[in-house]
TrEMBL record:
Residues 96-166 form the Flagellar hook protein FlgE/F/G-like D1 domain. This is Flagellar basal body rod protein FlgG. Keywords: Bacterial flagellum, Cell projection, Cilium, Flagellum. Residues 215-260 form the Flagellar basal-body/hook protein C-terminal domain. It is found in: Bacterial flagellum basal body. Belongs to the flagella basal body rod proteins family.
Length: 263
């Protein structure tokens, strides 16, 4: 009975966390560059009812032994970095990543963050590309280029698919540098810090991305599939309700047992 109560409780907690992540995904379905959260489940400890000491060999009938599970719990919420749809904006400071990777930006305090959304503006004082929080886009400048005097504006900025930046002048182009993109090795390399921004997780291995195109005048939209999220919402709500009913039934049975003991 105690095992049943524990199983129902852990399942309810897991499903509640799943509902929270789904709600967060749906609310950000129209947020440019948003990457969905995915919460999955895993089994807790399972134990056999046939306890005949510690098994030193595999029993041929082991697979038919009755087992009792320890319930389930959610895994860590994983950020899914799959490609979102790309929307044309015709704004030449908007950059969409078609492929893998994230932009690297530097905050005013010198710390670095990574973003997928490429909605940038131009710092009037220096001509650098910055996001809406004033964080400067990291650029590998060519030799002889002064990062504090780029002379870029919305009319002369040109960026090709490889991320190479040019300043258009009269009948020529001056190559400024290149925008490198970065990715993490593994599923948990980046930690969200809000505003569609990420920092590397502890001991994360960050490497330069290779398979991508940068598309000027476009922006990447959220990768949330609203229809899929609503389907998962219904399934998770039903699972939560089932666990709730199981908990209520177990509680009623405990009440009956306590009444019998009192007589």
């Amino acid at each position: 009975m105690l095992r049943a109560l524990w199983n129902s409780k852990t399942a309810m907690i897991a499903n509640q966390n799943k509902l929270d992540s789904i709600s967060n995904n749906i609310s950000n379905s129209n947020t440019d560059g948003y990457k969905k959260l995915d919460v999955r489940f895993k089994d807790l400890v399972q134990d056999t009812f046939n306890r005949h000491g510690y098994p030193i060999t595999e029993n041929a009938n082991r697979q038919v032994d009755p087992y009792s599970g320890g319930g389930s719990r959610e895994t860590d919420a994983l950020r899914v970095f799959t490609q979102g749809n790309i929307r044309e904006t015709t704004v030449n400071t908007d950059l969409a990543i078609d492929g893998e990777g994230l932009f690297r930006l530097t905050r005013a305090d010198g710390t670095e963050i990574y973003k997928r959304v490429g909605s940038f503006g131009i710092d009037i004082a220096t001509g650098n590309l910055v996001d809406d929080m004033g964080n400067r886009l990291y650029i590998e400048y060519n030799q002889g280029i002064n990062p504090e005097q780029l002379g870029l504006d919305r009319t002369n900025l040109s960026i090709d698919k490889s991320g190479t930046i040019y300043r258009e002048e009269a009948n020529s182009k001056v190559e400024i540098g290149r925008i490198p993109l970065y990715k993490a090795i593994g599923d948990k390399g980046f930690v969200s810090v809000g505003e569609s921004s990420f920092i590397p997780a502890e001991d994360a291995q960050i490497v330069e991305a290779q398979d991508y195109d940068i598309r000027q005048g476009f922006i990447e939209m959220s990768n949330v599939d609203v229809a899929e999220e609503f389907t998962q919402l219904i399934l998770t709500q039903r699972a939560f309700e089932l666990s709730s009913k199981s908990l209520k039934t177990a509680d009623e049975m405990w009440g009956m047992i306590n009444n019998l003991k009192g007589r």
